[in-house]
Amino acid sequence: MKKSLFLLTLVGFLATQAYATPTKTRKTKAPKVTMEQQLAKYISYPDALRPSQRPGVVVIQFRVNADNELCQLEVFSQNEQINNSLVKQLTGKKLAGYGSDAAELHTVRLRFQPE
């Protein structure tokens, strides 16, 4: 009786272990570079804001193609010079990690501070 009870317990234990999900080891990874940080590498303070030395906020929308390049870029500001400057600076630039869905429209708010 003891042997059969022990075997039954052992079989039950092994069966539960066979279907258990293993725990993942927790590794600390370096934080990913955000989209805003990647865009900041490509953008300089717009010449249109230099005379006034004022901070500014501009909203941009774009898609990322399969090659991780910015495309269909739109800049929403009232200053056409800023719009043209940002389109020129960002068109064709690459964003790592965001090219999986070309239909996704990204909207980013850019804040400019005087240098």
Automatic annotation (TrEMBL):
Keyword Signal in annotation: yes
Signal peptide residues on this chain, from the entry's feature table: 1-20
Keywords for the protein's UniProt record, in alphabetical order: Signal
Name of the protein in its database record: TonB C-terminal domain-containing protein
Gene3D superfamilies assigned to the protein according to its UniProt record, in alphabetical order: 3.30.1150.10
